[in-house]
Amino acid sequence: MAYEKLELLIGGKWTAGTSGKTEPVLNPATEEVLGHVPHASAADLDAALEASREGFKVWRSMTALARQDIMEKAARLIEERKETYGENLTLEMGKPFAESKMELDFTVGVLRWYAEEGKRAYGRLVPARMPGMRQMVMKEPVGPVTAFVAWNFPGVNVIRKIAGALGAGCSIIIKASEETPSTCISIARCLQEAGLPDGVLNVVFGVPDEVSRHLLASPIPKKLSFTGSIPIGKHLQALAAETLKRCTMELGGHAPVMVFEDADIAKVAKMAAGAKFRNAGQVCISPTRFYVQESVVDHFADAFAAAAGEIRVGNGMDEGVGMGPLIGERRLGVMQSFVDDATSHGGELMLGGERVGNQGYFYAPTVLKNVPEDAMIMNEEPFGPVAPIASFKDFDDVVARANKLAFGLASYAFTQDGARAAALADQIDAGLLAVNSFVVSTPETPFGGVNESGYGSEGGTEGLDAFLRTKFVTEVGV
CA-CA distance, 124 to 285, in Å (whole number)? Predict the structure, then answer.
């Protein structure tokens, strides 16, 4: 198959840009070069900014029903091309082909959700204090949007920004990851083919800090939406503050998993292994700190390690592969540093702990037991296939440890005690909590964290509201 042609989209035109600069896109499973993504020059970025301003005028003036029709047509095109787009996604990101197709299914779901929800951007009438007056609260699109996304979910990260903006009536400039650019380009081509007016969606690439500084310095974008690391999120928020842009920040996490002794340990362990090693652990909501009650910790650790040991590691396009490579060579050393630090603190290596092969960026599913709280992996997000297991005594002990970090994105708990589940919902300091499952994200539900995991929501009615602003209008009859 042919890998997607890598181009910029500016003002409805596909272009190689004017900078003359490109960078290679590598297949992390084979290290082969898939293509070269062009970098936007300052002039290209200025053109994208102006295009987004003009595109916004056109898009916001269309009815919500007309916008929904275009977005639905694009959703159908992505759906029809899922096999091709899924292969490209696997080639550039590494995840198993089956996972890529599931991601594209979610991508289509998000696009359809926002297309429909855009028709429900309701305002309200407020009873007036004086006769003859009408008081109206109106919702309107915030304006042109700029967005930056991480590489780990090339479809979902991108569509949450694009679909949210489009559903609300905003135009958008998006800089997808230079490491995984093809899926964003494919989505943009589908929207363009579906009839999206020129300038409503602009796609750019380049040196991340150079692009973000240029776009965020402009008064044209009225909102920033970002998915990525905490340090970069703070940096972008500071840049956005210069022009008081509204921000949505979906940043990193370090999700605790609390397994109580009344849970079905064998079942939970198998579920946990599947969730942990999905996308090689390169997931912001990945379960990453496993706290298991003392009486069942050995049982859980053995069952978890057994399930992890059955995962086949390899090229995501090969049949039967359950886990692909890490995104880049740099991540291999990071994984090893987490493992070495944990064992130096007394943690027991039960499985893995090493690179797999010498071609591609594969790291073995790794399980560590009896990992103390002062180990690096219990305090810093690993973002990879390394799972630390520790024991806890009682409810208060595990809640304190689950809440000890500055992160607050996803969290998980397993118990058959309804009162305990309710207490966890009240006391866990996170934006997302799943009890007896690992499902915390669907197109129709809000997704986002608290504390240093960011703020604002994507998905659900809350996600649409992030791209809307409120106007209050009073009218007196004459």
Answer: 36
Q: Identify whether 250 is a catalytic site residue.
A: yes
Q: In angstroms, rounded to a whole number, what is the distance separating the alpha carbons of residues 277 and 366?
A: 9
Residue 151 DSSP one-character state: S
Q: Are strands 145-148 and 133-141 parallel, antiparallel or unpaired?
A: unpaired
- Amino acid symbol at 451: N
DSSP label at 296? G
Catalytic residue chosen out of the listed positions 87, 103, 250, 458: 250
Please name the helix (run of DSSP H) or strand (run of DSSP E) that holds residue 174, with its range, or none. Answer: strand 172-175
How far apart are alpha carbons 311 and 322 in whole angstroms? 5
pLDDT at 292: 98
Of the candidates 428, 424, 462, the one whose C-alpha atom is nearest the C-alpha of residue 443 is: 462
Q: Which one of 178, 284, 452, 458 is the catalytic residue?
A: 284
Residue identified by tokens 């650790």 is 301
Residues of the chain with CATH 3.40.309.10: 255-435
Say which CATH superfamily domain 8-251+451-475 falls into.
Answer: Aldehyde Dehydrogenase; Chain A, domain 1 (3.40.605.10)
Residues of the chain with confidence (pLDDT) below 50: none
Assigned CATH for 255-435: 3.40.309.10
Q: Are strands 223-227 and 145-148 parallel, antiparallel or unpaired?
A: parallel
Dihedral Cα 129, 130, 131, 136, nearest 10 deg: -60
247 assigned to active site: no
Query: Quick check: 171 and 56 in contact, CB under 8 A?
Result: yes
Q: What is the pLDDT of residue 477?
A: 84
State the pLDDT at residue 2.
84
**CATH 3.40.605.10 spans which residues of the chain?**
8-251+451-475
